[in-house]
Structure formats: structure tokens, C-alpha cells
Write a structure and sequence with these properties.
Structural class: alpha/beta
Bound molecules: 4-nitrophenyl phosphate
Helix content: 25-40%
Shape: globular
Mean pLDDT: 94
Number of helices: 5
Low-confidence stretches: none
Distance between the termini: 39 Å
Strand order of the largest sheet: 2-1-3-4
Order of helices and strands: EHEHHEHHE
């Protein structure tokens, strides 16, 4: 059965589409592309339809990763479709919690930092939009 994973940040133009693209490359390299579905979305819809931020695309391209995602806002139906919904910071986590229709849906929400094996001091993936 396919594992369906959704990464969520604020604008869906920097952190979550980068995580999406990276995990896609990693699963392709591992020969497991068919066993996962990966997507990303933002809690804020103001960038919907846009390509990822050029700074993030450049950073990804420098590592051999192409980012083709178009931004979209997270929606309640995502809790039906996805098995894991991974928030890049605490604000996104709390916004997802408010959007989740029930307790079962809330149990699908994780913080990205839970999966970091290095840099354990990081409490989240910081918002890069204004700080670079
Ligand atoms: P992201 O970065 O959440 O990693 O996509 C941001 C993108 C846009 C804005 C904030 C953060 N914004 O305020 O428009």
C-alpha cells in the first residue's frame, strides 16, 4: 500500500516544496518511488498557483534537485488522502491542528523536527522568506 506524505509550511513556496522535492529524489534513488505519494501545501493560500521561490529553487538546483511544485493551500480533504502531514514549524503545526476535522486526523500531524537525526537543537525549520 502506498504511503502518502504531505509536507506543510506557511506559503508552500520555500520549505515544504523543498522537502517534497528532496524526499522524492531520495525515494527515487532508493527505488521506492512507486510506494510513496509525496505532496506539499501551505497553511496560507496567498501564493497559490506560484512556482517555488527562486532562491529555494536555486538552492535545490545547486544540489541537483529540481522543484516543479505549484503552491496550494492545505485543505480539510488532505486529512483523508494523506497518512502523514508534516509541519515545518510550530505555527503550521497549530494551524493544521485547528483544520483537522477530528482526532484521527490530528494523529496524522507531525513536526518535521521529530525526524531530524542531526542538529537536535533545531526546534523547527525556520521561516526563510524574509531572513534569507
Ligand atoms: P514557506 O516561506 O512557508 O517556507 O513557503 C514563506 C513564504 C511566503 C511567506 C512566508 C513564508 N509570506 O509571508 O508570504
Amino acid at each position: 500500500m502506498k504511503q502518502r506524505i504531505l509536507f506543510v509550511c506557511l506559503g508552500n513556496i520555500c520549505r515544504s516544496p523543498a522537502a517534497e522535492a528532496m524526499l522524492r529524489v531520495l525515494t527515487e534513488r532508493a527505488g521506492k518511488a512507486d510506494s510513496v505519494e509525496i505532496d506539499s501545501a501551505g497553511t496560507y493560500g496567498g501564493h497559490s498557483g506560484e512556482r517555488s521561490d527562486p532562491r529555494m529553487r536555486r538552492a535545490a538546483a545547486a544540489r541537483g534537485i529540481e522543484m516543479t511544485h505549484r503552491a496550494r493551500q492545505v485543505r480539510e480533504e488532505d486529512f483523508d488522502r494523506f497518512d502523514m502531514i508534516i509541519a515545518m514549524d510550530d505555527n503550521n503545526y497549530e494551524a493544521l491542528f485547528r483544520l483537522a476535522p477530528d482526532r484521527e486526523a490530528q494523529q496524522k500531524i507531525f513536526r518535521f523536527r521529530e525526524f531530524l537525526s542531526h542538529n537536535p537543537d533545531w526546534s523547527c525549520i525556520p521561516d526563510p522568506y524574509y531572513e534569507g
